[in-house]
Amino acid sequence: MKYLFLLSLVALTSVPVFPQDTLCPLPAGSLQIGGFVGNRIDLCLRNRVMAQDVDLLIKPFREKSDGKWGFRNDFWGRWYTSAMLGYSYAPNPEIHAIIDAAVKGLMETQSADGYIGTYPEEFQLGEWDVWGTKRVLAPDMMMSCCLASGPQGLMLTPSWSVMSSSRGVALNLFGNINAKIMTPEGQSASINMESDYPAGGSITATISLPEKEKFTIDIRIPEWSKNTEIRINGKPFKGDIIAGTYASVNRQWSDQDKIELAIDMHARVVKAPSNIGDAAIQRGPVILAFDSRLVPFQTYVEIPPMYRYKFLSNTPDDYIDVDLLEKSDTSKIWMTFNVPLLDEAGSPHFMKMCDYASAGNTWQQDNIFRVWVHQPFDLRHLYINKLNWRVINPFSESDEPPTIPERYKK
Questions:
Q1: Is it the case that residue 74 has pLDDT exceeding 80?
Q2: What is the DSSP string of 225-238?
Q3: What is the pLDDT of residues 307-364, one digit of tens each?
């Protein structure tokens, strides 16, 4: 009966009910992403997703020993989704062979009645067997649901970076990107984007096109970019440029036409909801963080009574003049900023903050960081009395912090 029920659900949902998507991902292998983001995607694919022990993923399906409760049935799905997204971005024989062997291994676990899962017969198609919510990529305790979401989300990035539509193409991600596209009239063309974004806000996209053609290039305007400029071949774009929407540039394009985009990278102080008094700093798409490598944990201050500081922002839009330093203090920190503060005596100061992606990335217990900071804040309590890894796992019985598995240290 349970299989008939599932078949009836399939029958009910077999009729298409959704319209064609306005924007579609480019064909596999059409995109190359460079710079910081591209490097992170490559590392994630090579040293995280494809470094998994696939046999360990399949083992629970052979054993079918999850009992009444368990979510190892979801390990496979999370890994497979990430692997296929990675293969779509970088189709190569090595990745194909791994995925192909993994699928064959999974199919060999299928029961005579068609069931593929990790539960014994008496618990099949119930509880977590139907809906596994733990987003885990590998069956070890180092891959919790949250950690699995990172690789899976990162592998999604190429699919939406540059997308096609019936009227042209949409540019969603900015950076060093080369995209092969098909125009509405069927020409093979390419768009080459150059930028140091998000360190800077200037982006140049060059179109390579065999023959002139009129089509639309939709440019995503970030919601936080309140003052955005677009130039086409050096001339200002006269269409609508509205934050949080697309700027649609419809014109006859020629080979080597250039789009220049200037995004508003002003940093601003963001106040926490519910009026709790905390604030954070956002610069473009980047969230800033205090990090103990830049501002060490302190139990005292040298010049009392100036214990308390607040972010120095005096504009109606809560803008704050942070400076991106040319060189970070440590090799593991991507971006370091000088941030202006005001002490309780009214004197200005500067403290260093880093991008959130770099915060705490030594994976050492003494490398602590903080994003939301009470205004004003006391340096002695900047890191909330040096709370450590137990904040993440307060129920651990071990006194030792988690360690990174060797296969992820490549």
A1: no
A2: -SS-EEEETTEEP-
A3: 689 999 878 889 999 999 988 778 889 999 999 999 888 889 999 999 999 999 888 8
Model confidence, pTM: 0.83
Structure-token match 């990430």, residue found: 82
Burial state string for 240-263 with b = 16 or more CB within 10 A and e = fewer than 16 = ebeeeebbebeeebeeebebbbeb
Cross-strand bridge partners of residue 203: 195, 261
The domains found in the chain, sorted by start residue, are 19-159 (no CATH), 166-262 (2.60.420), 267-391 (no CATH)
Q: Cα separation of 373 and 377, whole Å?
A: 7
Q: Which residue has the higher pLDDT, 272 or 301?
A: 272
Regarding beta strands 348-355 and 286-291, do their DSSP bridges make them parallel or antiparallel, or are they unpaired? antiparallel
What is the residue type of 131?
A: W
DSSP 299: S
Q: Would you say residue 407 has pLDDT above 50?
A: yes
Contacts of 366 (CB under 8 A, 6+ apart): 292, 297
Phi and psi based region of residue 175 (left: phi greater than 0; alpha: psi -120 to 50; beta: remaining): left
How many angstroms from the chain centroid is the CA of residue 403? 23
How far is the CA of 255 from the CAs of 102, 208, 261, in angstroms? 44, 5, 18
Whether the Cβ atoms of residue 135 and residue 152 lie closer than 8 Å to each other? yes
Asked if the model's pLDDT at residue 30 lies above 50, the reply is: yes
Question: Residue 119: is its pLDDT beyond 90?
Answer: no
**Shortest CA distance to 383 belongs to which of 395, 398, 366?**
366
Nearest C-alpha neighbor of 317 from the set 207, 378, 250, 226: 226
Match 């987003």 to its residue by tokens. Answer: 135
pLDDT of 409 over the 60 cut:
no
Biggest alpha carbon–alpha carbon distance for the chain:
77
CB-CB neighbours of 401 under 10 Å: 14
Packing angle, helices 145-161 and 35-44, rounded to 10: 130
Q: How far apart are the first and last CA of the chain?
A: 49
